[in-house]
Specification:
The protein is built from nine helices and 20 strands. The chain has a four-stranded mixed β-sheet, sandwiched between helices. It has one domain: L-arginine/glycine Amidinotransferase, Chain A (5-stranded Propeller).
Length: 342
């Protein structure tokens, strides 16, 4: 039987992909490369980084950059594979535990049902499974491929999953699987992820290029506790959306029938670049074996969010990592990464 482990369970390492062009961060590509080096450096203080690079030439360039930043290259393993983008949470495979091993799931990435240039990204799951010598399964339902990004789902590893109706069930915007209903998705989650209980939230925050990914909204911090972003400014476009999600969470039940503990995270003040509201969220943190990396935004609420999360993860270091440049790509630390369980 398959089971999608919770992120806080023991990890072998983190899968990343080094940005090889500036298309996702127009005008900020130089800054992004060094932001990514700092991201890699922080992870290698705690565990292995498995870093996809587009070519041997880029591998050499990145190695020089990492050396200059005093990164221990013994904790970096390179995977040569061309990609369109670097969002491993979505285009990379999901690593699922079975009875005796780890399996890769290919959820048929299609550019978030928005972009047409994803053909290279479709090859990432096979390349990664080959690198780790793990079996890979293409996810099907009633004989048809199912499209699902890792950023669209959040699990507690015990049987409960959280997602949004906006991402998976919208009838006309970024439609991944037009023919699937809630019941269909719940069957898929049970078969491939070992999930018996699904909590459906309504929608994501404004500016989210994925149209409702859960990892900008709420996250499990242990098997029965959920942190969720809440907007306190009633004038904000996100206020009512997040209030609705909070109400649903308070009415939700876990797989064992118990009510989850709900902890509120603040939102940073509205972040705008080139006239566009960006989906900045403290919920996009990444849990490592002994640490939690939290995106920060040069905002007064950075400190508040870090303090809240430090109480949620008392046995792990809490480290803020500036995401002011990364968020111009409409995602940050969690979106860019994928954990690999042991």
């Amino acid at each position: 039987m398959r089971r999608f482990p919770a992120e806080w369970e023991k990890q072998q390492g983190i899968l990343l992909c080094f940005p090889h062009n500036g298309n996702d961060w127009p005008g900020k590509y130089q800054a992004i490369q060094w932001a990514f080096v700092e991201f890699i450096k922080k992870i290698t203080l705690f565990e292995q980084v498995f870093l996809i690079v587009a070519s041997p030439k880029l591998k050499d360039k990145v190695s020089v950059m990492l050396n200059s930043a005093n990164v221990n290259l013994a904790y970096v393993s390179f995977v040569i594979q061309k990609t369109n983008r670097s969002w491993m949470r979505d285009s990379g495979p999901l690593f699922i535990k079975t009875k005796n091993s780890v399996e890769c799931l290919n959820f048929n990435f299609n550019g978030w049902a928005k972009y047409t240039n994803y053909q290279l990204d479709k090859n990432v799951p096979k390349a990664v499974s080959g690198f780790f010598k793990l079996p890979i399964t293409q996810v099907l339902y009633k004989g048809k491929p199912v499209t699902l990004e890792g950023g669209a789902i959040e699990v507690n590893g015990k049987g409960t999953l959280i997602t949004t109706e906006e991402c998976l069930l919208h009838p006309s915007v970024q439609v991944r699987n037009a023919e699937l209903s809630k019941t269909d998705y719940e069957c898929i989650f049970k078969e491939y992820l070992g999930v018996s209980n699904v909590i459906w939230l309504k929608a994501g925050i404004l500016g989210d290029d994925t149209h409702g990914h859960i990892d900008d909204l709420c996250r499990f911090v242990n098997a029965n506790t959920i942190v969720t972003v809440v907007e306190n400014d009633i004038k904000s476009v996100n206020y009512q959306i997040l209030q609705d999600n909070l109400k649903r969470l308070k009415q939700a039940r876990l797989e064992n029938g118990e009510t989850p503990r709900i902890i509120s995270l603040p939102m940073p003040k509205e972040l705008i670049f080139e006239g566009r509201i960006l989906p900045a969220s403290y919920a996009n943190f990444l849990i490592l074996n002994q640490c939690v990396l939290v995106p920060t935004f040069n905002d007064a609420n950075d400190r508040v969010a870090l303090n809240i999360l430090s109480q949620c993860f008392k046995t792990r270091e809490i480290i803020g990592l500036s995401a002011i440049d990364l968020i111009w790509g409409f995602g940050t630390l969690h979106c860019l990464s994928q954990q690999i369980p042991i």
